[in-house]
Design a protein that fits this description.
By secondary structure, this protein is an alpha/beta fold. The protein has 15 helices and 10 strands.
Length: 354
């Protein structure tokens, strides 16, 4: 079935098999990301001639999108290799029982994610083995593995997948390779070598996030704040929404957790106070050539900002791009806080350590 026919069928109301996702103590179906889902069908129809590296804010929904993508690939006759050390998952659904069993054995051997991450190179062996066994259509999905690798090792891994795509041991029909990360510095190291197609994904847009908000509001007993207040805190980030919900909307509790996890220490604030005071008002102040590169790297390493945003041409983005500039939620033209709550954490530390 070709892409046009698939999209035509979808537009006439035939619903795809939506994955079930956990939101705290609730089970919900995958929602929104309509454009992102169409892009999965496009990848499936043509294959990817380079690995597609998707980066974006922590908790923006990359994993949910990938899990939905896996179901689509299976429905379209693809074998799927899925690796996510953070979720302690390594699956090889390629119609070859010996490979599936090997993947299960690896997960059993490596209970800890940092140990499981050592098996990332096995993914390339699995790709080659699946092709040798005659699997002609293969989807490789790797999620959240780069945080356990050095920059050069992450780039080398992507290069290894590219080698399989370009110089396979056996012929194949199509390969789709998608690697997702929130690690900003990995993006630059990989992009420097031109071994991948690098595409950003942003938090949910306002319309889609409101759909999620209404779904949760109708199913929980505690009082959720008004949508506009939730939007201003999350900027459409579903993980921040979840964390606020789990904290029973004690915003200070969640902000304090962010301050600890992001290492917003007195020395960090003292060293960079003047720049941070400007950036909480407008993140694009960090775009100036006068801003120390050390500060930019620290903010990227801590996953507080997304630096050097792509222009808002939809072609560059997975799913919908953010607004050109929306200071209410901390989005500038060139730089954005990953979520408004991270900006609020910076504001609080600026006040505490003044």
């Amino acid at each position: 079935m070709n892409l046009k026919k698939i999209l035509c069928i979808k537009s006439f109301g035939v619903v795809m098999n939506r994955v079930k996702l956990r939101f705290s103590d609730l089970i919900i179906e995958f929602i929104d990301r309509d454009k992102g889902i169409k892009q999965i069908y496009e990848f499936a129809e043509k294959g990817t001639w380079h690995p597609v590296v998707v980066f974006g804010p922590e908790g923006c929904g990359k994993t949910s999108w990938l899990l939905q993508a896996i179901e689509i690939f299976k429905d379209l006759g693809y074998g799927v290799i899925y690796f996510n050390p953070l979720r302690k998952q390594f699956e090889a659904e390629v119609g070859i029982e010996s490979l599936r069993q090997r993947a299960l054995d690896i997960v059993k051997q490596a209970a800890l994610e940092h140990v499981l991450a050592k098996f990332i190179w096995v993914v390339i062996d699995f790709i080659n083995d699946a092709l040798r066994y005659g699997r002609k259509k293969l989807a490789i999905v790797v999620d959240d593995a780069f945080q356990y690798l050095g920059l050069r090792e992450a780039a080398a891994f992507v290069k290894g997948i590219l080698e399989v795509i370009e110089h396979p041991d056996v012929e194949y029909e199509r390969i789709v390779a998608i690697v997702a990360t929130s690690e900003g510095l990995s993006r630059y190291e990989i992009g420097r070598h031109r071994w991948a197609l690098i595409r950003p994904m942003w938090n949910m847009d306002k319309k889609g996030f409101e759909e999620l908000y209404e779904l949760i509001r109708k199913r929980v007993l505690d009082n959720i704040p008004k949508f506009d207040d939730v939007w201003r805190l999350t900027g459409g980030n579903p993980d921040i929404f979840l964390r606020l919900h789990q904290a029973r909307w004690n915003v200070d509790e969640v902000i304090d957790d962010v301050i600890k996890s992001k290492k917003l220490t007195p020395s960090f604030i003292a060293n960079w106070r003047s720049w941070l005071e400007e950036a909480v008002g407008d993140p694009d102040t960090l775009w100036s050539a006068e801003v120390p590169e050390e500060l930019i790297n620290k903010l990227i390493e801590r996953n507080l900002i997304v630096y050097d945003l792509y222009n808002r041409d939809p072609w560059f983005w997975i799913d919908e791009p953010p607004s050109e500039k929306d200071l209410e939620i901390g989005v500038g033209k060139y730089i954005a806080w990953q979520t408004p709550l991270y900006r609020e954490a910076i504001k609080k530390t600026l006040h505490i350590y003044s």
